Amino acid sequence: MTTRTLVITSSILGENGQSKALAEHFTAQAQGRGVEVTRRDLAADELPHLALAELGSWQVSEEERSPEQRELAARSDSLIAELRDHDVVVLAVPMYNFGIPSQLKAWFDRVMRAGVTFRYTENGPQGLVEGKRAVILAARGGQYAGTEMDTQTPHLKLMLGMIGIKEVDTVFAEGLAMGEGKRDAALKEARQAIDGLVERL
Ligand SMILES: Cc1cc2nc3c(=O)[nH]c(=O)nc-3n(C[C@H](O)[C@H](O)[C@H](O)COP(=O)(O)O)c2cc1C
């Protein structure tokens, strides 16, 4: 059986986006090995902020939804179905102002849905998206891996873990704004790390 991989990009820098270039490297390597890849570009195909009407649509049973609520709920339903339909999710993540892009947060706001992708039990929350792995490709101007200034990967792992995705590999491309030499070396190292991960898909 081939591994189905969902590659999610969120760089706002278009063709100059480094995380997107790493995602493309991942995709080319994976496809070269016969892995099926679906791309979702959250910057090109933007989701709005999650707001009350959409949240409310999830709380109404399918039969009782108004036409507008059906349309709003379909947004989250289809993103969750897409996630469930893949074995591996690759998140190519730029650091913008010490956080993940709001476009990516808007995606998490649709796929983290109580009663659907996780539920609360007597023993705490239980993830309902099972049997999946994730890869984070983290691109930043500075260098923060392993320090408290890495404000992204702990947050991403918390959100993924909440829905049941606990096996997460991270590739860092850091120091991208710290001179050409540092940038080129970081990107080369990141591409090599990606090659190693793709071999294990
Ligand atoms: C709006 C904006 C905010 C940024 N904020 C940070 C930051 O807080 N820390 C950092 O290390 N780099 C920051 N950078 C640099 C980016 O992390 C770096 O350019 C990285 O390559 C972005 O990923 P991308 O090329 O895939 O878009 C920022 C860049 C932009 C455009």
From TrEMBL:
Classification via InterPro entries: Flavodoxin_fold (IPR003680), Flavoprotein-like_sf (IPR029039), FMN-dep_NADH:Q_OxRdtase_AzoR1 (IPR050104), NADH:quinone_OxRdtase_FMN_depd (IPR023048)
Organism: Halomonas campaniensis
Annotated ranges, domain Flavodoxin-like fold: 4-195
Protein name: FMN dependent NADH:quinone oxidoreductase
Cofactor: binding details: Binds 1 FMN per subunit.
Family: Belongs to the azoreductase type 1 family.
Protein function: Quinone reductase that provides resistance to thiol-specific stress caused by electrophilic quinones. Also exhibits azoreductase activity. Catalyzes the reductive cleavage of the azo bond in aromatic azo compounds to the corresponding amines.
MF (Gene Ontology): electron transfer activity; FMN binding; oxidoreductase activity, acting on NAD(P)H as acceptor; oxidoreductase activity, acting on NAD(P)H, quinone or similar compound as acceptor
Domain of life per record: Bacteria
Enzyme Commission code(s) on record: 1.6.5.-, 1.7.1.17
Binding residues annotated for FMN, in chain numbering: S11, M95, Y96, N97, F98
Keywords: Flavoprotein, FMN, NAD, Oxidoreductase
Reaction catalysis annotation: 2 a quinone + NADH + H(+) = 2 a 1,4-benzosemiquinone + NAD(+); N,N-dimethyl-1,4-phenylenediamine + anthranilate + 2 NAD(+) = 2-(4-dimethylaminophenyl)diazenylbenzoate + 2 NADH + 2 H(+)
Subunit structure, interactors included: Homodimer.
Cofactor: FMN
